Amino acid sequence: MSLHVFANFVTPFGTAANNRAETEGNITTLQKLLWQGETHSTVSAEAIRFALRRRLGAAEKTNRVWDEALRSNVWQDHQFKGWASEKGVTFVDDDLLGYMIAEAAKEDGSDDGKGSATVRRAVLEITRAVSLTPWAGDVTFNAASPGATPSAQKKGSNPVPYGTEVHATRYQYGIALTPDRLRDKTRAAKAIDALCNLGTVAGNHGRFLFDFSPDAVVLRVTQDPAPRLLYCFDTTDDGKTVVSPKLLQRLAAEDLDPKELIVGVSDLECKLAADLKARQVPVYGVKKACEEAVKRITAELKIKG
Amino acid sequence: MLGVYVTVPVACFRKGMAREYLETEPLPPPATCYGFLLSFVGETDRRRHVGARVAPVLLNKPPTSVVLRTVWRVKKMPLGSPGNTRPDYQQLLTDVKLVVWLDSSAESGTEPTLEARVRAAFTHPSSVNRFGGLSLGESTHLVDEVSLLEGKKADSISGQVGRAFLLAPKGRLSLPVWVDHVGSAGTRYATGSLEEMTLPTPPSADRLPIIHHSP
């Protein structure tokens, strides 16, 4: 058997200028994609992984540590030597998020000149976050104080005007985790805990704080290899509240077993909670749901958490 | 022959030769579908089911978006050195719905065949020992739904017209059936074309691209 843990998270409502695309003129743009026929803003999985790695650092030492002063990553073991032996020292971020050192082929087209790769596949996989509501085209007009952006200010001491695309919305994203593949299985609990307490993801030079700690989460602990809950959240009132007709449909179709689901919501009286309770899905607060999932994983894997 | 219904919310089936601009194929190449099926049944030896025939069928017309992303390459050690990352554009497809046809009649490996193993994985998921999220292409591009194209699922798409990648000697599309990741000398392609077909009727088995590698 293989135990799979899947989850879909949705953030609280906030003003986002996360994950910028290429600047157009003096407008800092958002990353966008077409989603169900409309333009939605999006945040990469890499940005979520970056924030998660920093969060994991609070629980255990990580291999990659972001140095604010150097503005780059500092590595403890960039050749991943700890993985060579069974008892080697390994880091929580490598264990969960994987790594790769790839060396390009010296000479293409021949077997002799083949490249090499030292790879550990991620045990925890994360999808791209997509906004719950379409982007309406909001742009803020700003002016940097005189002297604040010397590179943009070619001459004189006037303020530098610029625009920022912003999106007032929620984001949703999913994860897949096979805890049995971890070198240290107690790290599954640390991953779930970090995801349920994730803070800022991406962001715009600290001008915006967009909270990625989930407002609602649906977790699934199962032997089915397909999540069947990715991007399951929706809204009928421009993101004010969260609903999930997709989840209800799948429960009705018996594609999802309510016994495998754990739902966490910040408002226990909300419609989402009532709809799911009516389908025999256990509903808790977000932190309690996280604890419940950890309890189930720990029991299934018979590990000491 | 077996049909597997698959949905992928966000995907990029990167063209093998794409470098600065990461273009996507319209649908996952047979090699990608084969890898996905191996992952589904927990098989780590990719030569185990050589000879399997795999054909993807696209059920909808996923819109294409373009995002800017960080692409890694190792120019300098250690890995965190500046210059090892660069921003590049990537095409993304959203809301991809597929059927993957699988036929094991020409497989050369030992029994059970991939077809039998995929069927067994649907009937008894607890008998499968596998790991990792199921994905088509990059691991970020997680698959959401996987179902056997039988019974209610087959009825739900009955009459829909999909576009299948089928072998055609003078076809306009070449997609890999085997990818050599370290050096590309061993990469093998199948030539075919995208043909409209009504579901859930399977195509003729001899038109399905066959998974093969260089000796």
SSE layout:
The complex is a heterodimer of chains A (305) and B (215).
Chain A: E1 4-10, E2 14-16, E3 27-28, E4 32-35, E5 38-43, H1 45-59, E6 64-67, E7 72-75, H2 92-97, E8 99-103, E9 116-120, E10 124-126, E11 129-131, E12 139-144, E13 160-165, E14 167-169, E15 171-177, H3 187-196, E16 216-222, H4 245-252, E17 261-265, H5 271-278, E18 283-284, H6 286-301
Parallel strand pairs in A: 3-13, 17-18
Antiparallel strand pairs in A: 1-15, 1-16, 2-14, 4-5, 5-11, 6-7, 8-9, 10-15, 11-15, 12-13, 16-17
Chain B: E1 2-11, E2 21-22, H1 30-41, E3 53-58, E4 64-72, E5 85-103, H2 114-123, E6 145-148, H3 151-156, E7 161-167, E8 173-178, E9 188-198
Parallel strand pairs in B: 2-5
Antiparallel strand pairs in B: 1-5, 1-6, 3-5, 3-7, 4-5, 7-9, 8-9
Protein name (chain B): CRISPR-associated fruiting body developmental protein S
Keywords (chain B): Antiviral defense
InterPro entries (chain B): Cas5_Cmx5_DevS, CRISPR-assoc_prot_Cas5_N
Your description of this structure?
The complex is a heterodimer of chains A (305) and B (215). By secondary structure, chain A is α+β, with helices and mostly antiparallel strands. Chain A has one domain. Chain A contains 6 helices and 18 strands. The longest helix of chain A has 16 residues. The mean pLDDT of chain A is 90. Helix content of chain B is 13%, strand content 34%. Chain B is globular and about 55 Å long. Classes of the chains: A alpha+beta (305), B mainly beta (215). At the A-B interface, strand 4, strand 7, strand 8 and strand 15 of A face strand 4, strand 5 and strand 6 of B.
